[in-house]
Amino acid sequence: MTPELFTSIQLRDLCLDNRVVVSPMCQYSSKNGCAQDWHLMHLGQFAVSGPGMIIIEMTNVAPAGRISPFCMGLYDDKTESALKRVIDYVKSLADTPIAVQLAHAGRKGSSRAPWDGGTQLTAAEGGWQTVAPSAISHSSSAHTPHPLSKDEIEDLVAAFASSAERAERIGFDAIELHSAHGYLLHQFLSPLSNHREDEYGGSLENRMRFPLEVFDAVRACWPDHRPLGMRVSATDWIKDGWDLEQTETLAKELEKRDCDWLDVSSGGLSDEQRVQTGPGYQVPFAEHIIQRTDLTIMTVGMITEPQQAEDIVASGQADLVALARGFLYDPRWVWHAANELGYDFKYPNPYLRCAPGNRR
Ligand SMILES: Cc1cc2nc3c(=O)[nH]c(=O)nc-3n(C[C@H](O)[C@H](O)[C@H](O)COP(=O)(O)O)c2cc1C
Question: Which atom of ligand 1 is nearest to the CA of 282?
Answer without folding.
Answer: 22
